[in-house]
Specification:
The structure is a homodimer.
Chain A: H1 3-15, H2 25-35, H3 42-53, H4 59-80, E1 90-91, E2 94-95, H5 97-101, H6 103-123, H7 132-143, H8 149-155, H9 163-185, H10 194-214, H11 217-220, H12 226-229, H13 235-257, H14 265-279, H15 282-294
Antiparallel strand pairs in A: 1-2
Helix pairs in contact in A: 1-4, 2-6, 3-4, 3-9, 3-14, 4-6, 4-9, 7-9, 8-9, 9-10, 10-13
């Protein structure tokens, strides 16, 4: 089964309990809206790719871990879009959850997705129970305090912050959880896979900062120009657009070099190159160069 | 060690990771504000009492489970107090988290407390790993979809609801998780303890509805009269004050009868009677009777 299908199937299964008899219909619909249709699903793709590279032996567990990681990503988007944060009207080209369902259901949908992520971890570790504690730790650290996604969003509320720490918490931490948990789902040590996830997270964050400046809402599927509008730290603001582009290219190379030696290394590097091209296509690089020449 | 001290110590330990180097200080402070000083800690008290009644053999695990249940309760209060829900200015006699730290940090503190609850479950099951999956399920079902706390809050967003289903989800589900997880932490079957938790949750909810009408903000530690102000379903509104009081007395008796036969049964019944007196003191019962005589 292609990875895309595995991920969608795992996500549907992870939300199946929320549709069982007795559920409040609007919250169930808000959760579905937050998760389907998805974006690039890059984090669960990574989990699957790393698990395979580590000799995957329990597909049900890998799928559960991949779904948990993506549910937590979706939860963070739903809360990040709330009026008190980004007040984003759109996400993935559709109304954001708070626009479609109201603020209360958006808060609750995020909460319910976090709970569903941990529930699916508990449900899919039956055959390899000994892997559950380390998976819980890895996933918790990717999203919780002191260094996960919530910490990253909380740095936006502090008067002073380090751009690197902020980006590591807001993006790097869940990418690291995605790679490490992929290894752990296959019974391997997660630690050698941390650097790959962190580099990839940095790469992704810099790309996101460039795209926020360069692309319009139709391509982004969400409002553009938000970093300046919300006075939010950004690589493009700190380094300038040309500097951010150079940083992006440097990070792509660093990411490729952090793939541990393993049978699946070349497939992983292929995924990384493909994702880099998707995030910052050639024409965008050319546009930035042209803008720099004009300046 | 008295149960009160055990619970406070377990809660401090469960939040220790959030204070490790690199944490954003305001979010860490908001989490502490949400958890300390606490209310009656009735849910973790129940967990401890049931674990003891079931022959507790792993105090570290019981403490972790009790802390997880209380963290999830605190998280639900923080999100319930948000401007888009109850817009409560006070909680436990102090500013609510969103009043003290702002709305963004209140959303994030709730999220971080949910994650911390699952993290502590994973961390404290080392000696009895086989109990972890069922504990994860019980705790998830107490707070998640389709029948846990988030579902209860979501019913407030539906045009039609059943008062019983709403109260069961909003309050009963976490009380049931508290009793069942107490048994499971001791290696016992949780199912025989479900009815006790559910009855106690119903009792507590009816008491809360009565208190919302009868007590002022100073005694409640939070604004009173909210059910009418927010057009929220309530036993006092559905049954009248006298009817709600009769229902409360009926539920206390039903709760006492649902304590399973076990060595700790009499201690458990004592806790229940004590809690019932704390929630609806004699003078409140007398006041309601006096009001009814006037009508």
């Amino acid at each position: 089964m292609p990875n895309e299908d595995r991920i969608e199937r795992a996500l549907r299964a992870s939300l199946a309990p929320s549709l069982q008899p007795g559920h409040p219909p609007k919250l169930a619909a808000a959760m579905q809206h937050a998760v389907f249709p998805g974006g690039a699903r890059i984090r669960p793709q990574l989990t699957l790719a790393v698990a395979r590279a580590c000799g995957e032996d329990d597909a049900q567990l890998t799928d559960g871990v991949a779904a948990a990681i993506e549910l937590l990503h979706c939860a963070s988007l739903v809360h990040d879009d709330l009026p008190c944060f980004d007040a984003a009207e759109t996400r993935r080209g559709r109304p954001s959850v708070h626009r479609a369902f109201g603020e209360r259901l958006a808060v609750l949908a995020g909460d319910a997705l976090i709970v569903a992520a941990f529930e699916v971890l508990g449900r899919t570790t039956r055959r390899h129970l000994s892997r559950l504690p380390v998976l819980l730790r890895t996933v918790s650290q990717g999203v919780g305090m002191p260094l996960g996604i919530v910490a990253g969003q909380a740095w936006e509320c502090e008067p002073q912050l380090s751009l690197a720490d902020y980006q590591q918490a807001k993006t790097g931490a869940l990418f690291a959880a995605a790679t490490m948990a992929g290894a752990q789902a296959a019974g391997a040590d997660g630690e050698p896979w941390r650097a790959l996830g962190e580099r990839l997270g940095q790469t992704y964050q810099v790309a996101d900062d460039i795209r926020d400046v360069m692309l319009d809402a139709q391509v982004l599927g969400k409002p553009g120009g938000q970093d300046v509008a919300r006075d939010r730290p950004s690589s493009a603001r700190a380094l300038g657009l040309e500097g951010a582009m150079a940083e992006f290219q440097r990070l792509v190379q660093a990411t490729l070099l952090s793939v541990p030696v393993c049978p699946g290394a070349s497939q992983l590097r292929q995924i990384i190159r493909h994702e880099a091209d998707r995030l910052v296509p050639q024409r965008l690089t050319a546009q930035v160069a042209a803008l720099a020449a004009l300046a």
